[in-house]
Design a protein that fits this description.
With 248 residues, the chain is of the alpha/beta class. Helices cover 28% and strands 21% of the residues. The strands form three sheets. It has a nine-stranded mixed sheet with strand order 4-1-5-6-13-12-11-8-9, sandwiched between helices. Strand 11 and strand 12 form a beta hairpin. The structure holds manganese (II) ion. The site of manganese (II) ion (MN) has 9 residues, from loops.
Length: 248
C-alpha cells in the first residue's frame, strides 16, 4: 500500500494565541517527519466518545502518539507527586483508549516522549512522575525548550542489539552502544507494562525505548526523533520503518 494513513491525536492549545480561541493541533515536526517518510498524517480531535474515536482509528493504518503533558498518576494507581506537571484528562483518556485498541489490533504504533509513557500505562505499567526527585544520580533529562534547542543532544542511549530498534537505527548509527539523543522529559517508564520490553536505556538506567514482545510493530522512544529526522539518517529511518509497517 502506498501512502498509509497515520492517525495522530491532537493536543489542546491553551495559550493566548489565536485571540484566545481554544484550539487543537499537533506540532509541525511530527507531521513533517511522517510526510517525509511517505505517510499521510490525519489528526484526530480530542472530545470524541470512545466508539467514534475507535471508528476513526480503525480507518487508519498506523497510530502515532506524540509528546506533551504529564500523565495523570491516578491512571497507574499513584497519588500526584509535588513535581507533577500539567495534565490533560481528555488527552489521557483518548490516547490510552487508542493505545489499547492499537495493541489489541496489532496496528503499527510509534510512540514518542509522552507517547511511550501513555503506551506503558495503557499496558499496565507505571511511571516515575519526576526523575530529578525520584531517581537519585540520574542524568539531566529535562533539557526543555527554549532554554535548550529541541535538537540539543543531552545524552546517549544504549540500544539492545537484537531489537527492532537496533535493526532500524543500526543501518546508519555508528554504534548501538551510544546513540546520541535529545531529551525533553522529566517523567519516564518505571515498571514496564505487560507485553512490552525495554530496548534502550540511558547511561543512568532510565528507560529510553520499549517495544512489543510479540510480532506487532510497536515501538516507543523517550527522546524526540521528529526533531532530529531532518538532519539524521538513523532518526529518519525510524519514521520510514513505521510508515512502511503501516503500509503492509
Ligand atoms: Mn532522556
Amino acid at each position: 500500500m502506498t501512502s498509509p494513513i497515520i492517525a495522530i491525536p491532537c493536543r489542546h492549545d491553551a495559550s493566548a494565541r489565536h485571540h484566545r480561541l481554544p484550539m487543537q493541533g499537533m506540532g509541525q515536526a511530527y507531521l513533517s517527519a511522517v510526510i517525509a517518510a511517505g505517510g499521510v498524517p490525519v489528526l484526530l480531535p480530542l472530545g470524541l466518545d470512545e466508539p467514534r474515536l475507535l471508528r476513526a482509528l480503525d480507518r487508519a493504518d498506523g497510530l502515532l502518539l506524540a509528546g506533551g503533558e504529564d500523565i495523570a498518576p491516578a491512571l497507574f494507581g499513584e497519588e500526584p507527586h509535588p513535581k507533577l506537571g500539567k495534565v490533560d484528562a481528555d488527552r489521557d483518556a483518548v490516547e490510552v483508549a487508542l493505545a489499547r485498541r492499537a495493541l489489541e489490533a496489532g496496528l503499527p504504533l510509534l510512540a514518542i516522549c509522552r507517547g511511550i509513557q501513555v503506551l506503558n500505562v495503557a499496558a499496565g505499567g507505571t511511571l516515575y512522575q519526576d526523575i530529578p526527585s525520584q531517581v537519585p544520580g540520574a542524568l539531566k533529562h529535562n533539557c526543555f525548550y527554549p532554554e535548550y534547542p529541541r535538537d540539543h543532544i543531552a545524552h546517549a542511549v544504549a540500544i539492545a542489539p537484537d531489537s527492532r530498534l537496533a535493526a532500524i537505527v543500526g543501518q546508519t548509527a555508528e554504534s548501538l552502544a551510544a546513540v546520541p539523543v535529545n531529551s525533553l522529559h522529566h517523567q519516564s517508564v518505571k515498571a514496564v507494562g505487560t507485553g512490552l520490553q525495554v530496548v534502550a536505556q540511558a547511561p543512568d538506567g532510565i528507560v529510553e525505548a520499549v517495544e512489543a514482545t510479540g510480532e506487532a510493530w510497536v515501538l516507543a522512544v523517550q527522546w524526540h526523533p521528529e526533531e532530529l529526522a531532518a538532519s539524521r539518517a538513523d532518526m529518519a529511518a525510524l519514521f520510514r520503518a513505521f510508515v512502511e509497517a503501516a503500509g503492509r
